[in-house]
Structure formats: C-alpha cells, structure tokens
Amino acid sequence: MTNQVVFITGATSGIGLGIARQVARQGHVLGFNGLADDATITAVQDELIQLGAKDCQYFDGDMRDPDAIRAMLADAEDKLGRIDVLVNNAGIQHVAAIEEFPTQKWDDVIAINLSASFHAIASVLPGMKARQHGRIINIASVHGLIASVNKTAYIAAKHGLVGLTKAVALEAATDHITVNAICPAWVRTPLVEAQIEARMAANGTTRDAESVALVEERQPTKAFVTPEQIGDLVLYMMSDSAASVTGIAMPIDGAWTAQ
Ligand code: NAD
Predict the structure, then answer these.
(1) How far is C-alpha 12 from the chain's CA centre?
(2) N or C: lower Cβ tally within 10 Å for the chain?
(3) How far is the CA of 84 from the centre of ligand 1 (A)?
(4) Which atom of ligand 1 is nearest to the CA of 11?
(5) Rounded distance, CA 49 to CA 156, Å?
C-alpha cells in the first residue's frame, strides 16, 4: 500500500488537515482542496511535503458548485495521474431551531455536506473502475447515526451521506473499490470552536468551561477525538487488510452512540 494518490476535500483545516498529515507521513501523493488564503495553502503544502508526501498539490473548487467539483477532480486526475483514494471531508455546520433555520443555510449545508460527495464520487468512480482499485471514505459524523437538537440540515445531510455510502458500496462491490463512512464525535476544530463560542455567549462562561461541558454531555470518554486518530482510521481503510470492509458507517466517538 505505497504510492497511493489521495485526494482530500476541505484539508486546509481541522479533520481534513489531520488526515492529510497522517497520509503524508506514509509518503503518499496528496491532492487537497479547501477555502483558504494563499499563505495558508502554501503553509499546508510545505508542511505536508516536509512530513513525507511525495507530491502535494492544491486544487481550487467551491464545494457548493457541482460543475466546479467535477472540473476540479478532472484536473486533479490529470495533474496527479489518477486518484486512488477520495476522502470527502469538507463540511460546514449551522445551529438553529428549524423555525429559524435560514433557507440559504439549509441549501449550503446540504450542498457541501452531502451533494458535493455525490458529485465527487461520480467524478472519480469511472477511473477507479477502469483500474479495478479504489477507496472512497466519507467523513460523516455521529450525527449520521443519531440526532441532536437545532442541527436539522447537518443531521439530514450526514444521514444522507451514510445512505450514499451504502448505495455506492453496493454499486462498486465487485470492482475492488470500498466505500465507507467515518462517524466522529466532537473533534476540537474551527467548526466546533464556533459552537463553543456560541455557548460561552449564551451561558456567560469561559472557553475552558464550555469545552469541558460540551464533551462531557455526550461523550462517555470525556475526551475529544483527534484529527490524527481519524487520519489513522483512514490509513486502515486504505489498506489491503480493509479490502472486505465496505458499506459501513464506523463511529469513532468515545462511546457516544453506545448509549
Ligand atoms: P473545519 O471547519 O476545521 O474544516 C472544514 C474544511 O472544509 C475546511 O478546509 C474548509 O475550508 C472546507 N470547506 C468548507 N466549506 C467549503 C466550500 N464551500 N468549498 C470548499 N471547501 C470548504 O471543520 P472540521 O471540524 O474539520 O470538519 C471536517 C468534516 O468533519 C466535516 O464534514 C464535519 O462535518 C465533520 N465532522 C466534524 C466533527 C467535529 O467535531 N469537528 C465531528 C464529526 C464530523
């Protein structure tokens, strides 16, 4: 399992960057995407090369735009030679009761957290089928398996992503292509930091108090999952040992969904 070409969406930050770091440490070739300024993109690229990536190229593309996603992946296949592993990771969150949920936010969450994966998978699957090898890994969430209040769009998108994972796993089952979802609980990234800050404002408390309260509410281990732990799970799903692991939605959640 060497010299794989791995494309990760939303790898300029958080979980995607953690996955990219673990993949880079194994010496694979990386393509990545994400919304960031030039200085951040260059810093990410330099770090991943320094960690061991054989090559590392950035590809621009707004994950709300189906044509941009398909053009971006065609360009990546062209420049990187092929895509062996697609990690659909880019995502956003919006927290509001359904009566107050802005329509535009609903559309953006569904577009980025669900539809983008459909377009990306449809783009790379023909090449994977032709080569009779591939790995598709969708970063879902515990919210792909269970619900919480005030996150309708996110929960609908992540449940949809788990369904998409199962459906494509069946379509690609005899082509030596596995399709899996990873379902993390709280990981301390900018996406979660925004929720900690909203709780600080609502409760008049500190960042430390709210980060402890957040993780203790639902996660029996009382510890944040780390991006690197998710990266190591991606490496396992990429491996030959995981050839029969397909169509699953695997929690990495400190026993959240065991309750
Ligand atoms: P993050 O905000 O740190 O990173 C999100 C990434 O997606 C960034 O690189 C960002 O630039 C990119 N992105 C967002 N909108 C985009 C767009 N329109 N076009 C292109 N790229 C875009 O968040 P994160 O916590 O690392 O989240 C990564 C994934 O993990 C998401 O799918 C999220 O739902 C999922 N997840 C996060 C947690 C958590 O606790 N942080 C838990 C479970 C699942």
Answers:
(1) 12
(2) C
(3) 22
(4) 9
(5) 37
Provide CATH 3.40.50.720 ranges for the chain.
5-185+226-252
- Alpha-carbon distance of 122 to 155, in angstroms, equals 23
pLDDT tens for the chain, residues 1 to 259: 679 999 999 999 999 999 999 999 999 999 999 999 999 999 999 999 999 999 999 999 999 999 999 999 999 999 999 999 999 999 999 999 999 999 999 999 999 999 999 999 999 999 999 999 999 999 999 999 999 999 999 999 999 999 999 999 999 999 999 999 999 999 999 999 999 999 999 999 999 999 999 999 999 999 999 999 999 999 999 999 999 999 999 999 999 999 9
Give the distance (Å) from ligand 1 centre to CA of residue 221. Answer: 23
Evaluate if pTM is beyond 0.90.
yes
154 is catalytic: yes
Q: Which of 215, 227, 121 is nearest to 184 (CA)?
A: 227
Yes or no: domain 5-185+226-252 corresponds to CATH 3.40.50.720: yes
